[in-house]
Amino acid sequence: MGFDDLYNTSLVLGLGFSSSSTVDTTKSNNKVKINSNSELPSLTLSLSGEIYDSTVKKVEFSDNNKGSGGPYLSCGDNLYRQDSGASSFVSNVSSVKREREMGSEEVVLSSRNLINSTTTTTTDEDDDGLINGRKKLRLTKVQSALLEESFKIHSTLNPKQKQELARELKLRPRQVEVWFQNRRARTKLKQTEVDCEFLKKCCESLTDENRRLQKELQELKALKLAQPLYMQLPAATLTMCPSCERIGGGGGGAENAAKSNFTVAPKPHFYNPFTNPSAAC
DNA sequence: CTGAAGCTATAGCTTACCTCA
DNA sequence: ACTGAGGTAAGCTATAGCTTC
């Protein structure tokens, strides 16, 4: 590519992810979603032409059912959750799992009620494990701290660890499990927001860089027009990057001399504005 | 060995409740 | 007292991985 060719090019700023993943920063329920599969962001600054190119089924058994947490059966003043049985559409997996956990919960049931009644909102569970409505359990500071400590060590729990932690905290294993699920989700959400901010900064930085390079290009074009013809001949040995004004020195001899005055990345490449001072160098 | 079926864990999304300004 | 926003426990579905037959 010759110098003249370069005059007729424009710079293109590209922001995206490597491979085929896409960025989807739609906000839903105040949540930022990025479908990135944890891939690195690919920020490119290149010449033009070089950019490579459930339906929720719910059955309301009772008009008193305020929430959507699932079907409820009313019985007197109580609303009983219908987790399994007749309402067979309810997740088979969930019900089986819950039944299994109910069994294992028996170990901690008595002591749990003790701590709940003293430190948290009670769950109003009767002996059959039926939930009266949907009460909000509030973990105590001690419980939260212990869970946090545990999360720092491992973000996922094996069944044994879960049981152990549940016993220690006097909670149901299911509650420990849910806490870890939500905790992982929060961590991910936070990371996503951080990533989003990072990408925004990258984008801003590259936009600035692009603007600056466009300006330089314009200046060089103007300079060329102002120069007499003999000065427009390509330099034989010296090359200079217009961006950082560093002399490239044409050490390659004839081979380099045959090329353009300064090199431009032939393919889009990852550009990190926080580590690279100039995309052109 | 292969494929279907079942089980389990997890992610993602959503809802409901609680707290607080 | 009321209200809206934010935090969070817990619900459900989808999916992947594993085991069993």
Automatic annotation (TrEMBL):
GO CC, any one term: nucleus
DNA-binding region boundaries: 132-191
Classification via InterPro entries: HD, HD-ZIP_Homeobox_LZ_Class_II, Homeobox_CS, Homeodomain-like_sf, Leu_zip_homeo
Keyword DNA-binding among record annotations: yes
Subcellular location: Nucleus
Stretches assigned to coiled coil: 196-226
Keywords annotated in UniProt: Coiled coil, DNA-binding, Homeobox, Nucleus, Transcription, Transcription regulation
Keyword Transcription regulation among record annotations: yes
Annotated GO MF terms: DNA binding
Domain of life, source organism: Eukaryota
Domain (Homeobox) ranges: 130-190
Family under the similarity heading: Belongs to the HD-ZIP homeobox family. Class II subfamily.
Protein name: Homeobox domain-containing protein
Species name: Penstemon smallii
